[in-house]
Prior knowledge:
By secondary structure, this protein is of the alpha+beta class. Among the domains are: 1-37; 44-141; 616-669, no CATH class. It has helices at 2-39, 143-152, 156-169, 174-186, 190-203, 207-220, 223-236, 241-253, 257-270, 277-289, 293-306, 311-323, 327-340, 345-358, 361-374, 379-391, 395-408, 413-425, 429-442, 447-459, 463-476, 481-493, 497-510, 515-527, 531-543, 549-562, 566-579, 584-596, 600-613, 618-630, 634-647, 652-663; strands spanning 44-51, 54-59, 63-66, 71-79, 87-90, 104-105, 119-127, 130-139. It has a four-stranded antiparallel beta sheet with strand order 2-1-4-6, with no helix packed on it. A four-stranded mixed beta sheet has the order 3-8-7-5, with no helix packed on it. Strand 7 and strand 8 (130-139) form a beta hairpin. Helix 2 packs antiparallel against helix 3, helix 9 packs antiparallel against helix 10 and helix 31 (634-647) runs antiparallel to helix 32. It is flat, with a radius of gyration of 54 Å.
Amino acid sequence: MLVSRKKKRARRRLLFWLFTFLILSVSASGWWLWQQKKSQRPRLNYLLISINGEPRKLLSGETLSLRPRDRLKITDVSTTIPFNMDIRLVCKGLDVNALQYDEITLSELLPLKDTFQRYKFPIEAKYLNQNIGHITWIIQPYAEDWLEKANRIIDDQMRLSILERGHGLLPGDGRIRDRLLAEYMAQKKWENAVPMLCKKAAKINDIETLNDLMVCYGALKDQAGIVRILGEMLKKRPDDLELRMRLAEILEDREQWGEAAEQYEIMLEHAPPEERLPLYKNLGYLYTKTGQLEKAVSAYLSAANLDQKDPNLHYNLSALYEQLGRQKEADFYLDNAVTLNSDDLAGRLKLAEGLVGKGDLDKARKYLSQILERKPDSKQGLALMANILEQQRDNGGLRQVYWKILELDPENEAVAYNLGVLEYEGGDLKAALPYFEGYVKNHPEDITVQEILFDIYQKENNAAAAYGQALILLDLKPGETDIYGFVFEYLKNRSEYDLLIPILEKGAQENPDQFLLNEYLAMAYLKAGKVDQGAREIEKLLRKESPKAVPLLHDLFEILAARKNYQAIIDMMKKGVKLDPKNITLREYLVFAYLKTGKETRAISEMEKILKEKPGDMALWLQLARLTEKKNQIPKSIKAYRRVLDLSPEHPEASEAYLRLRLEGVGGD
């Protein structure tokens, strides 16, 4: 029994020590883990990845390029945290954690499984919520993928779109670039092909690329581009005269005279004698354009030696020598030109036109006189002579030429018009009138001529015709206030207000901002006895704060006073005074109306305002004194009588009233 108890005690001690050891071991392990987590800075060391069965180690911060068709599996995540406790991988848009369990083709994890995009996935390793490292995966198709897909597409636009996307994602890949460029050329997308060809030419400046650029610039009609490419091609083929001629012609069309001349000079060095004439002529022209007159003379002389019967060469030489101040040579070559074309009136006419363009009117007139002597009915010669005479202000000769042109062509409206202007500006209004009257029948919409006719009728004192012309102008130019003024005066002088008022009403409607028309209309209404309408127009002017309204108020007052419409006088004059506070007459009208309507207090107020402006008006002071005395405003009355006495010391009524009120003991001085 005793032994049994001893065994039990021994087992209990053993269990105690085992339990104690277990507790100590767990505590020690927890303490070790805590020390490790506390002492180690959380950090991602690397990821171990299997790519298509081949292992790949990625350090923190590295970037990995992948294809959508790659099969991946994350086989290990190495961190400084023991057992990767509380470690997780985070990637927005990609289920990266699925790759820790299975080998998966990346395309299955991409958004919408779209494999022809470029994706950039930052993958972060987090300890709890702390970022301890990252790697970046860039997933995009390779050039072979893009080209394979493009070759399978039949639709041109879709194929082009695929190639553009591929080039955008892989701009440095020459295979996609060349395939896209070929597609642009095939589909005639010249604007898209040009920048790519330019980049290619900058790297590989071969003839084939330059030819492609020439095709594009030609289709785009880009002469600047063609010039640049021709220059590049000529560097490679300096003896190609066909290319150089094309370049020279384009430069000439672009008015790049100096550059074009350089090309002709090079061609001249290699051209056989029988092909040099046009080159000399072109050089002469280009040297003239660039101001190299001596070189131009030399070129034209060389051309003249090859073709002595071309009068234009002599004309050009004459003009050049004249610009150089060598008049003797200029006259010599001009004589040569005339000798070569003695019977060529067209040539002389052309020479005259050229001289007019240069401003040499006297010489041009000399040649035209010779033409008109031989062919007096030359319309071109007469027209050019008219131009010269107009510039020389030879009105007498110009008139004769115009008459001759009209004799040959009576329906020539332009000349008839010009002749009318000539007579009009010369002051012969009667002579000008029939030309303008005839012209305006076919051109009634010509406002300028209608205005000239209006002016002539006025100056000729033909008021009735001017009135009819004014009505025409008002239809064409309803905003012309000066014409309304003439119509107003014309009809007012005849008291034809029934005709005047509708015209002015329409004008005011068409020109709501023209105060003058409201003034005319108000006056017309008043003269026609339409007081209410006249008052309405005056009120419009008052609302617009137009000073034109004030003079009309005087006429309105007379009419309203005659009608004993005193309240209307008050309403209108108050508005007038607001517009023109210094106008004493309007305040006097108010005093009159206030007294007529028994509003004596208001009359007193207006009298006082008038007297501030007219302190010497004795009659008004006396009237104020009487009225204030009547209203028992004794201090004001005493003051008013005092002012009367200041102006007229012997005034009996003022003396008596002043003393009487003072003796009664009311008020003061």
